[in-house]
Backbone:
């Protein structure tokens, strides 16, 4: 440290600058401080490394535990293959290996055996294409079968407590409300009209592509047509993803499509819960897509609430049997808005 001090010279009457060096004193003060900072930095680094080591150890133990439990389960299932049980075709890893052609894989399973089993983590699943078994599950003994915790946990982040991810009373209540949309009168007077209009839009798009010799993605077009129709029937809202005229709708459609894929991928990803906990990989992407979906749907609900405040429009729609599912769900809460 250097101090500049002005002084008067008696003979020449000029200012002089005398430099006083304080470096030795500063060094005496700075040395202990630097030592303390180094010690603190070393301690913080050691704590960080310890935390990372503990986290890595926990993740490793979790992965080893999952693999070990799955191996034990597979050994037990392969060892106990009774004659009255459907044949065992493989494990979830077979599905993961063929995930890009999964539907073709399903067809191969069905051709090989009408009813078969696939081993998942902690349980086995029955896959069937037998009409009698399907009738037994979906009609004759429907009350005996549930989606179960395994399926609900996988779908809940995207579908919440909706009809696709619930069992019991919640499912029955929502089914009762939604079933009105599939009555003969509603299908004839409203829902079928919506589907026909969007089918005509799809036909026009395909015809235009054929006339211009343009390649099209039929799966994408069919998905958009279905999405537009379901949103009109379910929310009373024109999504217009087929025309691509509305940017927020397109963002929602893309997010919903990708979210469905990522949720479906959970069935073959035995580490999806760990990824969700750490918010990494496919689970981080799913979280972002769900945020887009939630924001879009909440905006629609607010719009619907404002529309339903107009009693005349609400009464007219109800009289004509054109209540959408969202209107009916809100109405069942005790108030139309």
Residues:
């Amino acid at each position: 440290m250097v101090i500049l001090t002005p002084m008067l010279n008696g003979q020449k009457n000029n200012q002089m600058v005398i430099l006083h060096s304080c470096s030795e004193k500063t060094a005496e003060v700075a040395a202990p401080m630097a030592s303390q900072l180094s010690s603190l930095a070393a301690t913080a680094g050691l704590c960080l490394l310890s935390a990372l080591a503990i986290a890595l150890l926990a993740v490793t133990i979790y992965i080893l535990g999952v693999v070990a439990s799955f191996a034990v389960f597979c050994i037990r299932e392969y060892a106990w293959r009774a004659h009255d049980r459907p044949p065992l075709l493989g494990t979830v890893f077979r599905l993961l290996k063929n995930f890009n052609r999964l539907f073709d894989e399903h067809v191969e399973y069905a051709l090989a055996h009408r009813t078969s089993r696939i081993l998942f983590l902690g349980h086995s699943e029955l896959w069937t294409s037998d009409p009698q078994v399907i009738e037994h599950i979906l009609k004759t003994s429907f009350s005996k079968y549930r989606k179960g915790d395994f399926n609900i946990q996988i779908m809940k982040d995207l579908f919440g407590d909706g009809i696709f991810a619930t069992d019991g009373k919640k499912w029955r209540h929502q089914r009762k409300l939604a079933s009105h949309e599939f009555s003969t009168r509603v299908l004839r007077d409203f829902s079928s009209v919506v589907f026909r209009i969007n089918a005509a839009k799809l036909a026009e798009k395909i015809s235009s592509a054929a006339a211009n010799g343009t390649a099209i993605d039929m799966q994408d077009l069919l998905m958009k047509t279905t999405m537009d129709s379901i949103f009109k029937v379910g929310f009373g809202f024109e999504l217009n993803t087929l025309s691509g005229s509305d940017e927020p709708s397109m963002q929602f459609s893309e997010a919903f499509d990708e979210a469905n894929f990522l949720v479906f991928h959970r069935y073959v990803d035995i580490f999806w819960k760990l990824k969700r906990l750490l918010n990494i990989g496919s689970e981080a992407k799913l979280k972002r897509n769900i945020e887009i979906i939630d924001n879009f749907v909440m905006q629609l609900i607010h719009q619907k609430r404002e529309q339903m405040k107009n009693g005349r429009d609400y009464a007219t729609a109800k009289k004509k049997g054109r209540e959408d599912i969202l209107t009916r769900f809100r109405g069942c809460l005790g108030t139309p808005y």
